[in-house]
Amino acid sequence: MTDTIASLQKQSKLDALDNRVLLCHALGVNRIALITQSERVLTAEESQRFNALAQRRLDGEPIAYIVGQREFFGLPFEVNDAVLIPRPDTELLVELTLDRLPAQGRVLDMGTGSGAIAVSLAHTRKDADVTALDVSPDALAVAQRNAANNGARVTFLQSDWYAALQGAAPFDVIASNPPYIASDDCHLSEGDLRYEPVGALTDHADGLSALRIIIAGAPQHLKPQGWLLMEHGYDQSAAVRALLSEAGYDEVQSWQDLAGIERVTGGKLNNLLST
């Protein structure tokens, strides 16, 4: 039987969105073309290409890794298995950072991964001085390509948290989406998380160790009254607020994502903490 676009859509075991995305990717066409060319007969190579992609998705591979791209903050980002897949929840962290970044301000993105946070900030605020760091050279390579492809000016550093920042000028805002899933969390063996880099997901401990390191080290790298903003798990906001308060930060608070979950917590550096 000869496949058409319409017949492949009907036969597919994928949900409608995944099916459409993979068809567009396999055929190199947009969504409009799928509609207007629905009765186009596909070549054997096109059918085989789509079926191979569909099988990868049915086996559980994330759609973003299959097509090699995910949109974030209105921008296209290359993704592969060296980096986490950017999620809409993290756009809240970008928005909060933009709200607190002064003109010609300096901002640090810790654990940048694909560069989604840093590139979105630099693309939106051309005046800002944006630095991003990650311990993974493979992740940094992806982030650098994303910055170049989106015309964003970002300084990238390979660094184990603050290690490469000795002597650097302080920042107005430090933002981070660190590994925060506890090592015994069952979600690590479910869904897309099975395919994502485990070191970017979990701290291999209680889910708070990376957040503790960031909180403890930030005073040495923030300007007086500078902000520290961190994304965390759905049930960690109270614990992160307590860590910030115990460390002496001011205006400690949490912000909700679109689902009403407290997703980002932050505080302002107390002048007494400044070095």
Distance between the termini: 73 Å
Strand order of the largest sheet: 5-4-3-6-7-9-8
Question: Helices and strands: which structural class?
Answer: alpha/beta
- Sequence stretches where pLDDT stays below 50 over 5 or more residues: none
CATH architecture of the largest domain, by name, is 3-Layer(aba) Sandwich
Mean pLDDT metric? 92
The helical percent reads: 25-40%
Largest sheet properties: 7 strands, mixed
Instruction: Tell me the name of the CATH homologous superfamily of the largest domain.
Output: Vaccinia Virus protein VP39
Would you list the SSEs in sequence order as H and E?
HHHHHEEHEHEHEEHHEHEE
Report the β-strand fraction as a percent range.
Answer: 15-25%
Compute the number of helices: 11
- Overall tally of structural domains: 2
State the shape: elongated
Q: Give the total of beta strands.
A: 9
Binding site for S-adenosyl-L-methionine: 111-115, 134, 161, 177
EC number: 2.1.1.297
Organism: Duganella flavida
Domain Release factor glutamine methyltransferase N-terminal: 8-68
